[in-house]
Write a structure and sequence with these properties.
Layout (H helix, E strand, L loop, with lengths): L6 H15 L8 H12 L3 H10 L1 H5 L2 H4 L10 H19 L4 E7 L5 H14 L7 E8 L2 H9 L1 E2 L9 H7 E4 L2 E4 L1 H4 L2 E5 L15 E6 L8 H14 E9 L12 E6 L2 E6 L36 H8 L3 H12 L6 H13 L3 H11 L6 H17 L3 H14 L4 H13 L3 H17 L2 H7 L5 H16 L1
Parallel strand pairs: 1-2, 1-7, 2-6, 7-8
Antiparallel strand pairs: 3-5, 4-5, 8-10, 9-10
Helix pairs in contact: 1-2, 1-3, 2-3, 6-7, 12-13, 13-14, 14-15, 14-16, 15-16, 16-17, 17-18, 18-19, 19-21
The chain binds S-adenosylmethionine (SAM).
The site of S-adenosylmethionine has 26 residues, from strand 2.
Amino acid sequence: MTPGHLIAEVERLRGLVAARLGLRFETRQLPWLAEVLARCAGGPPQDYLDRLASQPAELDALAPELTVGETYFFRHAEQFQALRLVVLPALLRARRPLRRLRVLSAGCASGEEAYSLAICLQAQLGLEREPWDWQVQAIDLNPEALRKAELARYGAWSLRELPEALQQPWFHAQGQEFSVDIAARRHVQFERRNLCSEDAEFWHPGGFDIVFCRNVLMYLTPEAVRAALARIRRSLAPDGYLFLGHAESLREQDEGFRLEHNEGCFYYQRSAASETAPRPAPVAATLPPTPPPRAPQPPAPARPTPEPLLELLRRERHDDALALTAALAASAPPDPALLLHEALLLAQQGRLDEAERACERLLPLQAAPAQRAATHYVQALCLEARDDPAGAALRYRQAARLDPGFAMPRLRQGLLARRRGELALMRTELASAARLLRDEDEHRLLLFGGGFGREALLALCEGEQRGAIA
Ligand SMILES: C[S@@+](CC[C@H](N)C(=O)[O-])C[C@H]1O[C@@H](n2cnc3c(N)ncnc32)[C@H](O)[C@@H]1O
């Protein structure tokens, strides 16, 4: 609970942080925000808040307290594969006359993403006969993270997903740490910058060929997401590429972008054709889980998702959808279908502990195998988000076994298999997913498709299978 005497102050802090830094804090986070306020104020909170409001630098200094900096080298390896095998070759062809490339790591945290990009580019451009002029610009709100990034020295934990072949040429042991090779380092430039502030010079039209903005938009308010995406769209070259986190999508914010997929991941390419009037709100979201099944045996309610909830999901109002679901699910006796939606929405918002607890509450209430399948699917998503691919694969298998008509666990299992180099398993799972997706229920896709529609998911399955055969 937020201490009673601080409620108004904490709300004011939440408003200032949203307006200036773009960061979104939900009601459940207010007690924590109250602690931050009490710790940082160092005196009467009102005076501190007045200073935050009148001196932007004071608020900027709060960024290390308020941001999540989780990152590591070659995070979501399949995206770097797509970059290496598809995106860079296409850009190299297109930019050969100028031999110039600009890449942006937006929300770079402590630099692992920016250096991973630089390693990919240097590995490819270093082979060119003529030198190229290229650079990775890396921006973040958090000055402490940027200081670490500048040092370019990392512990083994940051290198945990690094392909072995890249360790030796690009990292040099220095005591307990590893430093990034200068050949990649010299092309990376870090800068403290707020994705939510306008700066016409930095975001000039066509300034970047590739933007990585991964696992950042999920922390921002809908207004900040809209403004940040408008900036990114403007500053991408007309044929430039945008990578979001591997489980994020633009959902309805996709004007001016075409969805592409390769190497088991989605990304976007700018497309001049669709640059039309902006659509309403949205938020990047996560590839998520299911509703009740139209499964074989025990009859699950045919369509238990209440229409108002579906409408909120269609309109990307995930916070409201979660609040509605929690309110409905609190009624007695507990409705397993609603609890499942709650668990799914929690997982999509990255509230993994709560999602997992909801799944544990749910399983004893579910008799029908197809309902249990959906819960296992949510558990698998949480495990994937926790970087436990083996645990996630096990849960996806359970989900697919319990509900043989459920497409999404097959699809996720196929993508996981690809990451683990299990190509035969990947082919089987993606072929099943594609078959099932054709008949998959619309509502189930809305809930579990992670913002991607039937056609996009089918294209992903089919493209990946073709890629594996080639
Ligand atoms: C979870 S990290 C993501 C790091 C990296 N992109 C990755 O995916 O591994 C999110 C980063 O976004 C940064 N961030 C959040 N809001 C930002 C904003 N408005 N402008 C710039 N950076 C921001 C945070 O400081 C944090 O370092």
